[in-house]
Amino acid sequence: KVIKMSKSNYVSLYGTLIKDAVIKTDDKGNEYALFTLSVPQDGTKWCDYINCIAFGDTAVIVKDNPDQNTPFHVEGRIHTGSYQKNGRKYYTTDIVTEKIELVNEDE
User: Fold this and answer.
1) Three-state DSSP class for 57?
2) Per-residue pLDDT, 29
3) Would the CA dihedral through 61, 66, 70, 74 be positive or negative?
4) Residue 69 φ/ψ, nearest 5 degrees
5) How far apart are CA 14 and CA 102, in angstroms?
6) How confident is residue 102, by pLDDT bands cut at 50, 70 and 90?
């Protein structure tokens, strides 16, 4: 059976902020948010720590709710990159958020 998906690079995560989000402004004056989600692994006590970046309206949601332990549902795509520092190459993996929602855990 073949499953047809509309996006080949799609990620959906539920997690909480592990530290306060960092809000920055690019050269054109647009704000963006950098944050890390703690995402629990099913059936274990372990968590993965996933770096995320949000632009535009999604950045506003993070900016308005920047506190640690804020629960979010994030949808987006994986973005990989690399950079050089002190002659050594480092690789990065981030989630570029396309949709973000606050999760009401009381419901």
Assistant:
1) helix
2) 92
3) positive
4) 70, 10
5) 10
6) confident
CA distance 74 to 95: 9
Task: Report the alpha-carbon distance of residue 94 to residue 87 in Å, rounded.
Answer: 23
In the DSSP assignment, the letter for residue 82 is E
Where b means 16+ CB within 10 Å and e means fewer, 2-17 reads eeeeeeeeebebebbb
| Residues shown for the chain | 107
Task: Check pLDDT > 80 for residue 107.
Answer: no
Mean pLDDT of 35-41: 93
Which positions ≥6 away from 11 have C-beta within 8 Å? 74, 75, 76, 77, 78, 95
Given a contact cutoff of 8 angstroms between Cβ atoms, the answer to whether 22 and 32 are in contact is no
